[in-house]
Amino acid sequence: MHRTALNDRHRALGARMIPFAGWDMPVQYQGLVEEHRAVRSAAGLFDLSHMGEMYITGPGAAEALDYSLITAPSKLAEGRAHYSMICADDGGVIDDLIVYRLGNERFLAVPNASNAESVATALRERLAGFDAKLDDASMRTSLVAIQGPRAAEILQPLVGVDLKTIKYYSGTPTLACDMPVLLARTGYTGEDGFELFMAWDDSVSVWDALIAAGASRGLIPAGLGARDTLRLEAGMPLYGQELNRETTPFEAGLGRLVNFAKPGDFVGRKALERSKGAPRKALVGLRLSGRGIARIGYPVYLPAATDSCGTVTSGTSSPTLGFAIAMAYVPAQHAAAGGAVEVGIRDQRAVAEVVPMPFYRRST
Amino acid sequence: MDIPDNLKYSNEHEWLAVNGKTAKVGITAYAAEQIGDIVFVDLPAVGTRVEAGKSFGVIEAVKSVSELFAPVSGRVTAANDGVGKSPEIVAAEPYGGGWLIEIELSNPSEIDALKDAAGYRDMIAGL
Protein backbone atom coordinates (compact mmCIF):
# COMPACT_ATOMS: atom_id res chain seq x y z
CA MET A 1 0.00 0.00 0.00
CA HIS A 2 1.39 3.41 -0.98
CA ARG A 3 1.34 6.22 1.54
CA THR A 4 1.37 9.90 0.72
CA ALA A 5 3.82 12.22 2.46
CA LEU A 6 0.88 13.39 4.57
CA ASN A 7 -0.07 9.98 5.94
CA ASP A 8 1.10 10.82 9.47
CA ARG A 9 -0.82 14.08 9.36
CA HIS A 10 -4.05 12.27 8.46
CA ARG A 11 -3.60 9.79 11.27
CA ALA A 12 -2.79 12.54 13.78
CA LEU A 13 -6.01 14.31 12.71
CA GLY A 14 -7.96 11.14 13.51
CA ALA A 15 -8.84 10.35 9.91
CA ARG A 16 -10.44 7.05 9.00
CA MET A 17 -8.07 5.55 6.46
CA ILE A 18 -9.13 3.25 3.64
CA PRO A 19 -7.34 1.54 0.78
CA PHE A 20 -8.06 3.48 -2.41
CA ALA A 21 -6.46 2.59 -5.77
CA GLY A 22 -3.52 1.07 -3.92
CA TRP A 23 -3.12 4.02 -1.57
CA ASP A 24 -3.83 4.39 2.15
CA MET A 25 -6.07 7.46 2.03
CA PRO A 26 -8.32 9.43 4.42
CA VAL A 27 -12.01 8.85 3.65
CA GLN A 28 -13.09 11.27 6.36
CA TYR A 29 -11.75 13.11 9.38
CA GLN A 30 -14.49 14.31 11.73
CA GLY A 31 -17.42 13.64 9.43
CA LEU A 32 -18.28 13.55 5.76
CA VAL A 33 -21.19 15.98 5.89
CA GLU A 34 -19.30 18.49 8.04
CA GLU A 35 -16.42 18.37 5.54
CA HIS A 36 -18.78 18.66 2.59
CA ARG A 37 -20.47 21.72 4.12
CA ALA A 38 -17.13 23.33 4.93
CA VAL A 39 -16.17 23.16 1.25
CA ARG A 40 -19.50 24.67 0.19
CA SER A 41 -19.44 27.46 2.81
CA ALA A 42 -15.77 28.10 3.63
CA ALA A 43 -12.94 25.80 2.55
CA GLY A 44 -11.69 22.23 2.65
CA LEU A 45 -8.16 20.91 2.33
CA PHE A 46 -7.58 17.69 0.40
CA ASP A 47 -4.53 15.47 0.04
CA LEU A 48 -4.67 14.22 -3.56
CA SER A 49 -1.10 13.00 -3.77
CA HIS A 50 -2.32 9.60 -4.93
CA MET A 51 -3.24 11.08 -8.30
CA GLY A 52 -0.91 10.71 -11.27
CA GLU A 53 1.34 13.44 -12.63
CA MET A 54 2.91 12.86 -16.04
CA TYR A 55 5.03 15.32 -17.97
CA ILE A 56 4.98 15.15 -21.76
CA THR A 57 7.85 17.10 -23.23
CA GLY A 58 9.68 17.62 -26.51
CA PRO A 59 9.28 19.37 -29.86
CA GLY A 60 6.50 16.95 -30.80
CA ALA A 61 4.71 16.99 -27.43
CA ALA A 62 1.71 19.04 -28.58
CA GLU A 63 1.20 16.97 -31.72
CA ALA A 64 1.64 13.74 -29.76
CA LEU A 65 -1.02 14.74 -27.25
CA ASP A 66 -3.43 15.73 -30.01
CA TYR A 67 -2.99 12.19 -31.34
CA SER A 68 -3.25 10.55 -27.90
CA LEU A 69 -6.23 12.40 -26.41
CA ILE A 70 -9.71 13.35 -27.64
CA THR A 71 -9.04 17.08 -27.13
CA ALA A 72 -6.43 19.31 -28.79
CA PRO A 73 -3.83 20.29 -26.18
CA SER A 74 -1.89 21.96 -29.02
CA LYS A 75 -4.55 24.70 -28.91
CA LEU A 76 -3.88 25.48 -25.25
CA ALA A 77 -2.04 28.71 -24.52
CA GLU A 78 0.88 28.41 -22.14
CA GLY A 79 -0.38 28.41 -18.57
CA ARG A 80 -3.83 27.17 -19.53
CA ALA A 81 -5.40 23.76 -18.91
CA HIS A 82 -8.38 21.74 -20.04
CA TYR A 83 -10.33 18.67 -19.12
CA SER A 84 -9.69 15.77 -21.48
CA MET A 85 -9.91 12.03 -21.92
CA ILE A 86 -7.75 9.30 -23.29
CA CYS A 87 -9.78 6.75 -25.26
CA ALA A 88 -9.07 3.34 -26.70
CA ASP A 89 -9.37 2.53 -30.42
CA ASP A 90 -12.97 1.48 -29.83
CA GLY A 91 -13.82 4.85 -28.25
CA GLY A 92 -14.01 3.48 -24.69
CA VAL A 93 -12.63 5.78 -22.02
CA ILE A 94 -9.25 4.72 -20.58
CA ASP A 95 -9.26 7.69 -18.22
CA ASP A 96 -10.34 11.28 -17.81
CA LEU A 97 -7.59 13.75 -17.00
CA ILE A 98 -6.61 17.40 -16.85
CA VAL A 99 -3.88 18.59 -19.23
CA TYR A 100 -1.83 21.70 -18.40
CA ARG A 101 0.36 23.44 -20.94
CA LEU A 102 3.37 24.54 -18.90
CA GLY A 103 5.49 25.63 -21.87
CA ASN A 104 5.59 25.47 -25.62
CA GLU A 105 6.99 21.93 -25.50
CA ARG A 106 6.00 20.96 -21.97
CA PHE A 107 2.67 19.55 -20.75
CA LEU A 108 1.44 18.00 -17.52
CA ALA A 109 -1.30 15.36 -17.55
CA VAL A 110 -3.07 14.47 -14.30
CA PRO A 111 -4.86 11.09 -14.48
CA ASN A 112 -6.70 9.21 -11.74
CA ALA A 113 -4.61 7.18 -9.31
CA SER A 114 -6.48 4.04 -10.31
CA ASN A 115 -5.50 4.54 -13.96
CA ALA A 116 -2.04 6.07 -13.64
CA GLU A 117 -0.33 2.92 -14.86
CA SER A 118 -2.63 2.25 -17.81
CA VAL A 119 -2.44 5.92 -18.84
CA ALA A 120 1.36 5.87 -18.67
CA THR A 121 1.43 2.68 -20.75
CA ALA A 122 -0.97 4.04 -23.36
CA LEU A 123 0.81 7.40 -23.58
CA ARG A 124 4.21 5.75 -23.99
CA GLU A 125 2.88 3.67 -26.89
CA ARG A 126 1.19 6.65 -28.51
CA LEU A 127 4.18 8.97 -28.09
CA ALA A 128 6.48 6.47 -29.81
CA GLY A 129 5.97 7.95 -33.28
CA PHE A 130 6.60 11.54 -32.13
CA ASP A 131 9.53 13.58 -30.91
CA ALA A 132 8.14 13.58 -27.39
CA LYS A 133 8.81 11.73 -24.19
CA LEU A 134 6.86 10.85 -21.08
CA ASP A 135 8.11 11.38 -17.54
CA ASP A 136 5.85 9.71 -14.99
CA ALA A 137 6.41 11.88 -11.91
CA SER A 138 3.50 10.44 -9.92
CA MET A 139 5.60 8.95 -7.14
CA ARG A 140 7.64 12.09 -6.54
CA THR A 141 4.83 14.64 -6.81
CA SER A 142 2.45 15.64 -4.04
CA LEU A 143 -0.88 17.30 -4.74
CA VAL A 144 -2.84 19.33 -2.20
CA ALA A 145 -6.13 21.02 -3.08
CA ILE A 146 -7.81 23.87 -1.23
CA GLN A 147 -11.42 24.20 -2.33
CA GLY A 148 -14.26 26.47 -1.33
CA PRO A 149 -15.45 30.08 -1.46
CA ARG A 150 -12.79 31.18 1.03
CA ALA A 151 -9.93 29.24 -0.62
CA ALA A 152 -8.45 32.29 -2.36
CA GLU A 153 -8.48 34.48 0.75
CA ILE A 154 -6.81 31.73 2.81
CA LEU A 155 -4.22 30.90 0.18
CA GLN A 156 -3.35 34.44 -0.96
CA PRO A 157 -0.97 35.42 1.88
CA LEU A 158 1.00 32.20 1.41
CA VAL A 159 1.73 32.43 -2.31
CA GLY A 160 3.93 34.65 -4.45
CA VAL A 161 1.32 35.50 -7.05
CA ASP A 162 -1.84 37.57 -7.17
CA LEU A 163 -4.57 34.93 -7.28
CA LYS A 164 -6.86 37.29 -9.17
CA THR A 165 -4.55 36.81 -12.17
CA ILE A 166 -5.03 33.02 -12.10
CA LYS A 167 -8.05 32.19 -14.22
CA TYR A 168 -10.17 29.06 -13.86
CA TYR A 169 -8.36 26.17 -15.57
CA SER A 170 -4.96 27.82 -15.63
CA GLY A 171 -1.79 27.27 -13.64
CA THR A 172 1.50 28.97 -12.93
CA PRO A 173 4.73 28.08 -11.19
CA THR A 174 5.19 30.07 -7.99
CA LEU A 175 6.19 29.70 -4.35
CA ALA A 176 3.74 28.56 -1.71
CA CYS A 177 4.98 28.71 1.88
CA ASP A 178 8.46 29.11 0.33
CA MET A 179 8.10 25.81 -1.56
CA PRO A 180 8.18 25.76 -5.36
CA VAL A 181 4.75 24.69 -6.61
CA LEU A 182 2.63 24.58 -9.70
CA LEU A 183 -0.46 26.50 -8.62
CA ALA A 184 -3.59 25.76 -10.63
CA ARG A 185 -7.14 27.03 -10.33
CA THR A 186 -8.82 23.67 -10.81
CA GLY A 187 -10.81 21.25 -8.73
CA TYR A 188 -13.41 18.54 -8.46
CA THR A 189 -15.91 20.04 -6.04
CA GLY A 190 -17.98 22.60 -7.95
CA GLU A 191 -16.43 25.40 -5.91
CA ASP A 192 -13.68 27.88 -6.60
CA GLY A 193 -10.37 26.45 -5.52
CA PHE A 194 -6.76 25.68 -6.19
CA GLU A 195 -4.56 22.65 -6.65
CA LEU A 196 -0.89 22.79 -5.68
CA PHE A 197 1.57 20.36 -7.23
CA MET A 198 4.94 20.12 -5.51
CA ALA A 199 7.87 17.88 -4.65
CA TRP A 200 6.86 14.89 -2.54
CA ASP A 201 8.12 16.01 0.90
CA ASP A 202 7.18 19.66 0.48
CA SER A 203 3.50 18.89 0.96
CA VAL A 204 3.93 18.55 4.72
CA SER A 205 4.87 22.19 5.33
CA VAL A 206 2.34 23.41 2.75
CA TRP A 207 -0.40 21.36 4.44
CA ASP A 208 0.54 22.63 7.91
CA ALA A 209 0.65 26.23 6.73
CA LEU A 210 -2.75 25.99 5.04
CA ILE A 211 -4.34 24.33 8.07
CA ALA A 212 -2.93 27.07 10.30
CA ALA A 213 -3.92 29.89 7.95
CA GLY A 214 -7.40 28.52 7.33
CA ALA A 215 -8.49 27.40 10.78
CA SER A 216 -9.93 30.81 11.71
CA ARG A 217 -11.74 31.01 8.36
CA GLY A 218 -13.58 27.71 8.55
CA LEU A 219 -11.09 25.53 6.66
CA ILE A 220 -11.00 21.89 7.72
CA PRO A 221 -9.31 18.86 6.16
CA ALA A 222 -11.67 16.91 3.91
CA GLY A 223 -11.45 13.28 2.85
CA LEU A 224 -12.35 11.20 -0.16
CA GLY A 225 -15.91 10.75 1.12
CA ALA A 226 -16.68 14.47 0.89
CA ARG A 227 -14.78 14.67 -2.38
CA ASP A 228 -17.19 12.08 -3.80
CA THR A 229 -20.40 13.78 -2.63
CA LEU A 230 -19.10 17.20 -3.73
CA ARG A 231 -18.26 16.04 -7.24
CA LEU A 232 -21.57 14.20 -7.50
CA GLU A 233 -23.56 17.34 -6.62
CA ALA A 234 -21.44 19.19 -9.18
CA GLY A 235 -22.38 16.61 -11.82
CA MET A 236 -18.81 15.50 -12.41
CA PRO A 237 -18.20 11.91 -13.50
CA LEU A 238 -15.95 9.50 -11.61
CA TYR A 239 -13.86 6.96 -13.45
CA GLY A 240 -14.89 3.43 -12.55
CA GLN A 241 -18.49 4.56 -12.03
CA GLU A 242 -19.69 6.90 -14.79
CA LEU A 243 -16.63 6.33 -16.96
CA ASN A 244 -15.06 3.06 -18.05
CA ARG A 245 -13.73 1.19 -21.06
CA GLU A 246 -17.27 0.24 -22.12
CA THR A 247 -18.42 3.86 -22.27
CA THR A 248 -17.66 6.58 -24.84
CA PRO A 249 -17.45 10.30 -24.04
CA PHE A 250 -20.71 10.82 -25.95
CA GLU A 251 -22.53 8.31 -23.78
CA ALA A 252 -21.15 10.00 -20.65
CA GLY A 253 -22.57 13.34 -21.80
CA LEU A 254 -19.07 14.68 -22.50
CA GLY A 255 -19.08 14.49 -26.30
CA ARG A 256 -18.33 18.22 -26.44
CA LEU A 257 -14.78 17.33 -25.42
CA VAL A 258 -14.16 15.35 -28.60
CA ASN A 259 -12.36 17.60 -31.08
CA PHE A 260 -13.02 16.17 -34.54
CA ALA A 261 -11.81 19.42 -36.12
CA LYS A 262 -8.21 19.01 -35.00
CA PRO A 263 -5.77 18.16 -37.79
CA GLY A 264 -4.55 14.61 -38.09
CA ASP A 265 -5.80 11.33 -36.75
CA PHE A 266 -6.27 10.59 -33.07
CA VAL A 267 -6.79 7.33 -31.23
CA GLY A 268 -10.47 6.46 -31.21
CA ARG A 269 -11.54 8.93 -33.93
CA LYS A 270 -13.44 6.47 -36.13
CA ALA A 271 -15.23 4.79 -33.26
CA LEU A 272 -16.12 8.14 -31.72
CA GLU A 273 -17.56 9.41 -35.00
CA ARG A 274 -19.85 6.37 -34.94
CA SER A 275 -20.71 6.82 -31.26
CA LYS A 276 -21.64 10.47 -31.81
CA GLY A 277 -24.53 9.45 -34.02
CA ALA A 278 -25.56 6.33 -32.15
CA PRO A 279 -24.86 6.33 -28.42
CA ARG A 280 -25.83 3.02 -26.80
CA LYS A 281 -26.82 4.72 -23.55
CA ALA A 282 -26.93 8.12 -21.94
CA LEU A 283 -25.84 9.37 -18.53
CA VAL A 284 -28.62 11.15 -16.67
CA GLY A 285 -29.10 12.88 -13.37
CA LEU A 286 -31.86 11.55 -11.10
CA ARG A 287 -33.72 13.21 -8.27
CA LEU A 288 -35.44 10.73 -5.98
CA SER A 289 -38.69 11.81 -4.42
CA GLY A 290 -38.84 9.43 -1.46
CA ARG A 291 -36.48 8.73 1.39
CA GLY A 292 -34.61 5.98 -0.41
CA ILE A 293 -31.07 6.50 -1.67
CA ALA A 294 -30.04 5.07 -5.02
CA ARG A 295 -26.59 3.50 -4.86
CA ILE A 296 -24.12 2.27 -7.42
CA GLY A 297 -25.38 -0.85 -9.17
CA TYR A 298 -29.07 -0.40 -8.35
CA PRO A 299 -31.36 -1.10 -11.34
CA VAL A 300 -33.33 1.64 -13.13
CA TYR A 301 -36.78 0.89 -14.61
CA LEU A 302 -39.25 2.68 -16.78
CA PRO A 303 -42.44 3.19 -14.72
CA ALA A 304 -44.08 -0.15 -13.93
CA ALA A 305 -41.71 -2.06 -16.24
CA THR A 306 -40.61 -5.51 -15.14
CA ASP A 307 -37.16 -5.48 -16.70
CA SER A 308 -34.59 -2.86 -15.83
CA CYS A 309 -33.47 -0.44 -18.54
CA GLY A 310 -30.41 0.99 -16.84
CA THR A 311 -28.14 1.12 -13.82
CA VAL A 312 -27.23 3.65 -11.17
CA THR A 313 -23.55 4.62 -11.28
CA SER A 314 -23.39 6.99 -8.27
CA GLY A 315 -25.87 8.08 -5.66
CA THR A 316 -26.09 9.74 -2.31
CA SER A 317 -28.21 11.89 -0.06
CA SER A 318 -27.13 15.35 -1.17
CA PRO A 319 -25.87 17.25 1.89
CA THR A 320 -26.41 20.60 0.17
CA LEU A 321 -29.79 19.95 -1.44
CA GLY A 322 -31.35 17.74 1.21
CA PHE A 323 -32.68 15.06 -1.13
CA ALA A 324 -31.27 11.96 -2.78
CA ILE A 325 -29.49 12.40 -6.10
CA ALA A 326 -27.95 9.88 -8.46
CA MET A 327 -26.35 9.41 -11.82
CA ALA A 328 -27.45 6.51 -13.99
CA TYR A 329 -27.13 5.12 -17.48
CA VAL A 330 -30.43 4.70 -19.33
CA PRO A 331 -31.31 4.14 -23.00
CA ALA A 332 -30.63 7.35 -24.93
CA GLN A 333 -34.31 7.75 -25.86
CA HIS A 334 -35.25 8.02 -22.16
CA ALA A 335 -32.64 10.60 -21.22
CA ALA A 336 -34.73 13.76 -21.57
CA ALA A 337 -35.09 15.88 -18.44
CA GLY A 338 -38.50 15.62 -16.85
CA GLY A 339 -38.90 11.93 -17.59
CA ALA A 340 -40.02 9.59 -14.85
CA VAL A 341 -38.16 6.42 -13.92
CA GLU A 342 -38.00 4.08 -10.96
CA VAL A 343 -34.98 2.88 -9.03
CA GLY A 344 -34.97 -0.56 -7.45
CA ILE A 345 -33.89 -0.07 -3.86
CA ARG A 346 -33.74 -3.50 -2.24
CA ASP A 347 -37.29 -4.89 -2.60
CA GLN A 348 -38.96 -1.58 -3.43
CA ARG A 349 -39.27 0.84 -6.32
CA ALA A 350 -38.42 4.48 -5.67
CA VAL A 351 -39.81 7.13 -7.99
CA ALA A 352 -37.19 9.35 -9.60
CA GLU A 353 -37.20 12.21 -12.07
CA VAL A 354 -34.60 12.74 -14.77
CA VAL A 355 -33.12 16.16 -14.04
CA PRO A 356 -30.42 18.28 -15.68
CA MET A 357 -26.94 18.22 -14.22
CA PRO A 358 -25.18 19.69 -12.36
CA PHE A 359 -27.43 19.17 -9.36
CA TYR A 360 -25.64 22.03 -7.64
CA ARG A 361 -24.10 25.16 -9.14
CA ARG A 362 -22.32 27.75 -7.04
CA SER A 363 -23.98 31.13 -7.01
CA THR A 364 -21.05 33.29 -8.12
CA MET B 1 -15.50 3.82 23.16
CA ASP B 2 -18.71 3.51 25.16
CA ILE B 3 -19.64 -0.17 25.70
CA PRO B 4 -22.13 -0.47 28.57
CA ASP B 5 -21.58 -3.48 30.82
CA ASN B 6 -25.27 -4.34 31.18
CA LEU B 7 -25.86 -5.12 27.48
CA LYS B 8 -25.26 -8.08 25.17
CA TYR B 9 -23.55 -7.64 21.81
CA SER B 10 -23.63 -9.33 18.41
CA ASN B 11 -20.82 -9.79 15.93
CA GLU B 12 -22.76 -7.42 13.66
CA HIS B 13 -22.41 -4.57 16.20
CA GLU B 14 -25.97 -4.60 17.54
CA TRP B 15 -26.63 -4.41 21.25
CA LEU B 16 -29.41 -6.17 23.12
CA ALA B 17 -30.96 -5.02 26.40
CA VAL B 18 -32.90 -7.97 27.81
CA ASN B 19 -35.89 -7.23 30.02
CA GLY B 20 -37.75 -10.45 30.83
CA LYS B 21 -39.32 -11.82 27.65
CA THR B 22 -38.53 -8.79 25.54
CA ALA B 23 -35.33 -7.07 24.50
CA LYS B 24 -34.47 -3.72 23.02
CA VAL B 25 -32.06 -3.63 20.10
CA GLY B 26 -29.80 -0.88 18.81
CA ILE B 27 -26.44 -0.40 17.20
CA THR B 28 -23.26 0.19 19.16
CA ALA B 29 -21.38 3.47 19.38
CA TYR B 30 -18.62 1.83 17.35
CA ALA B 31 -21.05 0.93 14.56
CA ALA B 32 -22.57 4.40 14.55
CA GLU B 33 -19.14 5.96 14.23
CA GLN B 34 -18.22 3.61 11.38
CA ILE B 35 -21.45 4.31 9.50
CA GLY B 36 -20.99 8.07 9.67
CA ASP B 37 -23.65 10.65 8.82
CA ILE B 38 -26.95 8.76 9.13
CA VAL B 39 -29.70 9.96 6.78
CA PHE B 40 -32.51 7.60 7.70
CA VAL B 41 -33.26 4.30 9.31
CA ASP B 42 -35.68 1.82 7.78
CA LEU B 43 -37.26 -0.30 10.52
CA PRO B 44 -39.78 -3.15 10.39
CA ALA B 45 -43.42 -2.64 11.34
CA VAL B 46 -44.67 -3.83 14.71
CA GLY B 47 -45.66 -7.48 14.43
CA THR B 48 -42.94 -8.38 11.93
CA ARG B 49 -41.08 -11.61 12.70
CA VAL B 50 -37.30 -11.28 12.76
CA GLU B 51 -34.80 -14.08 12.78
CA ALA B 52 -31.41 -14.13 14.49
CA GLY B 53 -28.66 -13.28 12.04
CA LYS B 54 -31.08 -12.08 9.36
CA SER B 55 -31.58 -8.53 8.15
CA PHE B 56 -34.42 -6.60 9.79
CA GLY B 57 -33.78 -3.16 8.32
CA VAL B 58 -31.21 -0.77 6.96
CA ILE B 59 -29.39 2.36 7.98
CA GLU B 60 -28.79 4.78 5.13
CA ALA B 61 -25.82 7.09 5.56
CA VAL B 62 -24.50 9.62 3.09
CA LYS B 63 -21.65 7.33 2.12
CA SER B 64 -23.25 3.92 2.23
CA VAL B 65 -26.13 1.70 3.25
CA SER B 66 -25.73 -0.77 6.12
CA GLU B 67 -28.00 -3.70 6.88
CA LEU B 68 -29.26 -4.27 10.39
CA PHE B 69 -29.07 -7.86 11.59
CA ALA B 70 -31.30 -9.21 14.32
CA PRO B 71 -29.25 -10.48 17.28
CA VAL B 72 -32.13 -12.76 18.31
CA SER B 73 -35.36 -14.16 16.86
CA GLY B 74 -38.83 -12.99 17.73
CA ARG B 75 -41.68 -10.64 16.99
CA VAL B 76 -41.22 -6.87 16.79
CA THR B 77 -43.30 -5.28 19.57
CA ALA B 78 -42.09 -1.70 19.09
CA ALA B 79 -40.07 0.36 16.63
CA ASN B 80 -38.52 3.64 17.65
CA ASP B 81 -40.43 6.47 15.94
CA GLY B 82 -37.80 8.89 17.18
CA VAL B 83 -35.15 7.65 14.77
CA GLY B 84 -37.54 8.18 11.88
CA LYS B 85 -37.94 11.84 12.78
CA SER B 86 -34.32 12.51 13.72
CA PRO B 87 -32.01 9.73 12.55
CA GLU B 88 -28.96 11.52 13.95
CA ILE B 89 -30.07 10.37 17.42
CA VAL B 90 -28.79 6.87 16.55
CA ALA B 91 -25.23 8.21 16.61
CA ALA B 92 -25.81 10.77 19.36
CA GLU B 93 -27.42 8.32 21.82
CA PRO B 94 -26.80 4.82 20.48
CA TYR B 95 -27.70 3.14 23.79
CA GLY B 96 -30.50 5.55 24.75
CA GLY B 97 -32.85 7.53 22.54
CA GLY B 98 -31.30 5.91 19.47
CA TRP B 99 -32.62 2.40 20.18
CA LEU B 100 -34.21 0.76 17.12
CA ILE B 101 -36.69 -2.01 17.88
CA GLU B 102 -38.05 -4.09 20.73
CA ILE B 103 -38.37 -7.83 20.18
CA GLU B 104 -40.48 -10.38 22.02
CA LEU B 105 -38.03 -13.27 22.25
CA SER B 106 -39.09 -16.53 20.65
CA ASN B 107 -35.93 -18.38 21.65
CA PRO B 108 -34.31 -16.81 24.73
CA SER B 109 -31.42 -19.28 24.60
CA GLU B 110 -30.09 -17.34 21.59
CA ILE B 111 -28.91 -14.73 24.09
CA ASP B 112 -26.24 -17.15 25.25
CA ALA B 113 -24.55 -16.89 21.86
CA LEU B 114 -24.07 -13.13 22.24
CA LYS B 115 -21.00 -11.43 23.66
CA ASP B 116 -20.78 -9.58 26.93
CA ALA B 117 -19.23 -6.11 27.07
CA ALA B 118 -15.71 -7.46 27.64
CA GLY B 119 -16.04 -9.86 24.73
CA TYR B 120 -17.31 -7.12 22.43
CA ARG B 121 -14.54 -4.77 23.55
CA ASP B 122 -12.00 -7.46 22.64
CA MET B 123 -13.65 -7.96 19.27
CA ILE B 124 -13.53 -4.32 18.17
CA ALA B 125 -10.02 -3.93 19.55
CA GLY B 126 -9.03 -6.51 16.94
CA LEU B 127 -10.69 -4.67 14.03
Characterise this structure.
- The complex is a heterodimer of chains A (364) and B (127).
- With 364 residues, chain A is α+β, with helices and mostly antiparallel strands.
- Chain A has three domains: 7-49 and 139-233, Gyrase A, domain 2 (2-Layer Sandwich); 54-136, Aminomethyltransferase beta-barrel domains (Alpha-Beta Plaits, 2-Layer Sandwich); 281-355, Beta Barrel (Elongation Factor Tu (Ef-tu), domain 3).
- Helix content of chain A is 20%, strand content 32%.
- Chain A contains eight helices and 19 strands.
- In chain A, strand 1 (16-20) and strand 2 (23-28) form a beta hairpin.
- In chain A, helix 2 packs across helix 7 and helix 3 (61-68) packs across helix 4.
- The radius of gyration of chain A is 20 Å and the shape is globular.
- Chain A starts with 6 loop residues before the first helix and ends in a 9-residue tail after the last strand.
- The model of chain A has no long low-confidence stretch (mean pLDDT 97).
- Chain B has 127 residues and is an alpha+beta fold.
- Chain B has one domain (8-125): RNA polymerase II/Efflux pump adaptor protein, barrel-sandwich hybrid domain (OB fold (Dihydrolipoamide Acetyltransferase, E2P), Beta Barrel).
- Chain B is built from four helices and nine strands; from the N terminus they run E-E-E-H-E-E-E-E-E-H-H-E-H.
- Chain B has a six-stranded antiparallel beta sheet. Chain B has a three-stranded antiparallel beta sheet with strand order 4-6-7, with no helix packed on it.
- The two termini of chain B are 13 Å apart.
- The mean pLDDT of chain B is 95.
- The interface between A and B is medium-sized, with 17 and 11 residues.
List the helices and strands and how they pair.
The complex is a heterodimer of chains A (364) and B (127).
Chain A: H1 7-12, E1 16-20, E2 23-28, H2 32-41, E3 43-47, E4 54-57, H3 61-68, E5 81-87, E6 93-103, E7 106-111, H4 116-127, E8 133-136, E9 141-147, H5 151-155, E10 171-176, E11 179-184, E12 193-199, H6 203-214, E13 219-221, H7 224-233, H8 269-277, E14 282-288, E15 299-301, E16 310-317, E17 324-330, E18 340-345, E19 348-355
Parallel strand pairs in A: 3-13
Antiparallel strand pairs in A: 1-2, 3-9, 4-7, 4-8, 5-6, 6-7, 9-12, 10-11, 11-12, 14-17, 14-19, 15-16, 15-18, 16-17, 18-19
Chain B: E1 8-9, E2 14-19, E3 22-27, H1 29-35, E4 38-42, E5 49-50, E6 55-61, E7 65-69, E8 74-79, H2 81-85, H3 89-92, E9 101-105, H4 117-125
Antiparallel strand pairs in B: 1-2, 2-3, 3-9, 4-6, 5-8, 6-7, 8-9
